[in-house]
Design a protein that fits this description.
alpha+beta
Length: 213
């Protein structure tokens, strides 16, 4: 029997308007552990209101916490594409992740020019949409809430050569961006997949000893 090739997780960054791929940042090693938290909207937010107890007002607030490891010794051993300069350590991989939460220098300069001309309200820049890819069954748009980088080893030039990156992300839903937005369409497909998987597990009430009210 042929063993299927493993999938590599990571991020795909999309243009927020057109949905085209701008950049792909794979994990060097797939995370050994991830933590997910789902907090429903509604359900008991107002104790004592019987009419509202079981109502759901929208998609749950879902957060992911992932830890990714990077090692310069073999970071490009299985990666496609040209190798970066050997004397920068992990700066390339780490900067690619950090750039997801940083406006570009061009955007910052543009905002400064507007402010210097007396523009009273300068709109915040719109970042690319990060899409977290954890295999073919979990492809979901997220907003990166926190990036914590722990550099565990350095070379003689103080370039990081071994690091651990802790990422906290909130899943973007149709409530956040609307169903017509590229991220909204991805969320709907993610939710439809969850419903299909849930339908595969179905037993009668007697499976848990339930005899009815």
């Amino acid at each position: 029997m042929t063993t299927p090739a493993p999938h590599r997780g990571g991020f795909v960054f999309l243009d927020p308007e057109q949905g085209r791929v701008l950049r792909v940042v794979p994990f060097q090693y797939n995370p050994d552990r991830l933590t997910r938290t789902l907090r429903p909207q509604g359900i008991g937010d107002d104790p004592g209101d019987r009419l509202e107890t079981l109502r759901l007002y929208g998609p749950p607030q879902e957060t992911f916490h992932v830890e990714a490891e990077f090692n310069a010794a073999d970071q490009w051993a299985s990666a496609a594409g040209p190798e970066p300069p050997a004397d920068i350590g992990l700066f390339g991989a780490l900067s690619a992740l950090e750039s997801a939460v940083c406006p570009t220098s061009v955007q910052l300069a543009s905002q400064q020019r507007l402010a210097s001309r007396g523009v009273l309200e300068v709109a915040p820049v719109e970042a690319p949409v990060p899409v977290l890819v954890l295999g073919p069954r979990r492809v979901l748009p997220v907003r990166i809430a926190e990036v914590t980088v722990t550099e565990e080893a350095h070379d003689g030039q103080l370039n990081p050569v071994r690091a651990r990156v802790s990422l906290t992300m909130r899943v973007l839903t149709v409530d956040d961006v609307g169903p017509a937005h590229p991220a909204g369409g991805l969320y709907l497909r993610y939710q439809q997949g969850r419903e299909r998987f849930a339908a595969l597990v179905g037993y009668g009430p007697g499976a848990v000893g339930y005899q009815g009210p």
